[in-house]
Design goal:
The structure is a single chain. The protein is α/β, with parallel strands linked by helices. 36% of the residues lie in helices and 17% in strands. It is built from 7 helices and 8 strands, in the order H-E-E-E-H-E-H-E-E-H-E-H-E-H-H. It has a 6-stranded mixed β-sheet with strand order 4-1-5-8-6-7, sandwiched between helices. Strand 2 and strand 3 form a beta hairpin. The longest helix is centred in the middle third of the chain and has 18 residues. Bound molecules: zinc ion.
């Protein structure tokens, strides 16, 4: 695992949340026994670790995220996340999720969960909102304000695949820190591994909503492909 940043404790928050069922643990390592271990010389079973990716569907529960014409960001975030999970699994990646349903979870425990399970990357999936300007559209990724190379490479891999898969999309690029220029979003601040927050279009843009609804599978396959391509560069 490529680690970054300072270690933040509070695993107990994660454990408490897990015990009340907000988070589901999905087995993060796969042990495959050697087919030659019946020979006398095979003293050790090789252990093959699958790459673990943590996906985080933004918001949930009372926190609906952005809203426009009765469309809630939290629902789109979860639909996209579940579809990306499926795609990644078909590529042989082990996926853990911070939420599987309409649960409400704070942001720090989401990243702490990825830290606890030593995920190789953390991708938080959101949709954007722009007050009063329906014409504002496009896809962007937010990373740590220091523009860490690992974060930038992850975000680039995802955006490049999206651009190829759905060229009608407006690619707004990679942004660091937060919208108001202060610090970092919690996900990127707490994650000890390469991370990014993907904003897959604006809920407030009928054009983006049309693209997402029409090319949903292309988007989710592209996100998975980008994450997969990035994990292949990690040598794990
Ligand atoms: Zn959001």
């Amino acid at each position: 695992m490529i680690k970054k940043g300072i270690q933040y404790g509070c695993v107990c928050c994660v454990l408490v949340m897990m015990s009340i069922g907000c988070l589901q643990i999905i087995k993060n390592k796969t042990v495959i026994k050697s087919v030659i271990d019946q020979t006398e010389t095979a003293s050790l079973d090789p252990v093959i670790y699958k790459t673990v990716v943590c996906l985080d569907a933004g918001h949930g529960g009372d926190d609906v995220g952005a809203e426009s014409n009765g469309r809630y960001e939290k629902d789109d975030d979860l639909d996209i996340t579940l579809a990306v999970k499926k795609e990644l699994e078909s590529l042989g990646i082990e996926v853990i999720l911070t939420r599987l349903d309409d649960s409400s979870i704070d942001n720090a425990p989401r990243a702490e969960y990825a830290n606890l399970y030593e995920a190789a990357v953390l991708v938080s999936i959101h949709r954007n909102y722009y007050e009063g300007a329906e014409a504002v559209d496009g896809i962007e990724a937010w990373i740590n304000s220091q523009f860490l190379q690992v974060d930038e490479a992850l975000a680039t891999a995802i955006l490049e695949e999206i651009e190829k898969a759905v060229p009608q999309s407006t690619i707004r690029g990679i942004k660091g820190g937060t919208m108001d220029g202060e610090g970092n979003y919690t996900i990127n601040r707490v994650a000890q591994m390469p991370s990014c927050i993907l904003e897959l279009g604006f809920v407030s843009s009928s054009y983006d909503n049309y693209l997402l609804d029409t090319y949903f599978n292309d988007y989710t396959k592209a996100i998975a492909k980008g994450i997969y391509a990035y994990t292949k560069t990690l040598n794990i």
